[in-house]
Design brief:
The protein contains five helices and 17 strands. By secondary structure, the chain is of the alpha+beta class. Strands 1, 2, 4 and 5 form a four-stranded antiparallel β-sheet that branches. A three-stranded antiparallel β-sheet has the order 3-14-13, with no helix packed on it. It starts with 47 loop residues before the first helix and ends with a strand.
Length: 315
């Protein structure tokens, strides 16, 4: 879904990335007091070294995550349970999507399967969004409506963006699908966009920067002759549908927020075959299209930063 665009809330849509505050002191409990993370361990044996590292980074002018962005092991396990539903639903779509299928059938599958498994489709009624899933076809960049009257045709490429709430915990991912015999140019766009996600994922390392990941995505897209949407990006996720940080893909190494262990965010670049400019449908204020009518592709994964690297939680 989207992030701030002036007076609207959320976390994926933004005229520019919001600036987080750097250099602020991090309040700390006493060394023998219980750790702030709720582990019941003494602070000195739990998150003291972690906080010291963030304090030094902040003092050097880097943007560091606030504590509410650091998930505890218990929270991570509950988020993973939500992700199991999201993955299963997209697996079901992958097995059934085909030429001639109504987009509304995808919406029905998502709603019924999510609720049957005990979850709630996160997009449904989010800021007035009227469906359980986003289906973005060809030149639709994102937030496409799964309409009753729209059928999938041979040669279409479609992004199915699925998000789940389970017991108050959120998961979010999307996949691209090629319908029937897709031309080589569209097929290559889909493949390169997936490679962009993989290039970005390889840069997700503890104590690195979101800009490391963003530049890797950007460089691979541009090396293949594509552009990466600037106004829409990824986001933190887990305890809310959309959390900080805003995650862009036109960034520079060594910049943006520090990727600290315990952070969870999405990698979801929207890659255009043509020019970078986009526009929002005037009538529904949701569906986003490429300005030049050329195709766009997007893959989305949800990743946890770990002490040793990363773990993909949802795909």
């Amino acid at each position: 879904m989207r992030a701030d665009s002036g007076n609207r809330g959320g976390a994926k849509w933004a005229g520019a990335p919001r600036k987080a505050h750097a250099g602020q002191p991090i309040p700390k409990p006493g060394r023998n007091e219980p750790c702030w993370c709720g582990s019941t361990k003494k602070y000195k044996t739990c998150h003291a070294a972690f906080d010291d590292k963030l304090t030094i980074l902040a003092a050097n002018g880097h943007v560091v995550p606030s504590r509410n962005l650091i998930k505890t092991p218990e929270q991570v396990e509950k988020i993973k349970e939500s992700a199991k539903i999201n993955i299963a639903v997209l697996d079901e779509i992958q097995a059934k999507i085909c030429e001639g299928m109504k987009l509304s059938e995808i919406d029905k599958i998502v709603y019924e399967m999510t609720t049957d498994m005990g979850g709630i489709p996160a997009p449904l009624n989010y800021e007035g969004y009227p469906y359980s899933v986003c289906t973005s076809v060809n030149d639709q960049v994102c937030h496409g409506f799964p309409l009753e009257e729209r059928f999938l045709r041979e040669g279409d490429i479609v992004n199915v963006d699925c998000s789940t709430i389970l017991n108050g915990y959120f998961s979010d991912s999307s996949r691209m699908f090629c319908i029937g015999d897709v031309g080589p140019e569209k097929k290559r766009l889909v493949e390169v966009t997936k490679e962009c996600v993989e290039k970005g994922l390889a840069e997700v390392k503890p104590w690195g920067f979101l800009g490391d990941m963003g530049q890797a995505v950007h460089d691979h897209a541009f090396a293949n002759g594509y552009t990466v949407v600037r106004e829409i990006g990824g986001h933190g996720v887990g305890l809310q549908f959309h959390e900080e940080p805003w995650v862009g893909y036109n960034s520079v190494r060594g910049t943006q927020m520090v990727m600290a262990p315990g952070m969870i965010f999405t990698i979801e670049p929207m890659v255009n075959m043509g020019k970078v400019e986009i526009y929002v449908d005037d009538e529904n204020d949701w569906e986003v299209y490429t300005e030049d009518g050329m195709p766009s592709a997007q893959w989305e994964i949800m990743v946890l930063v770990t002490e040793n690297g990363h773990e993909v939680l949802c795909w």
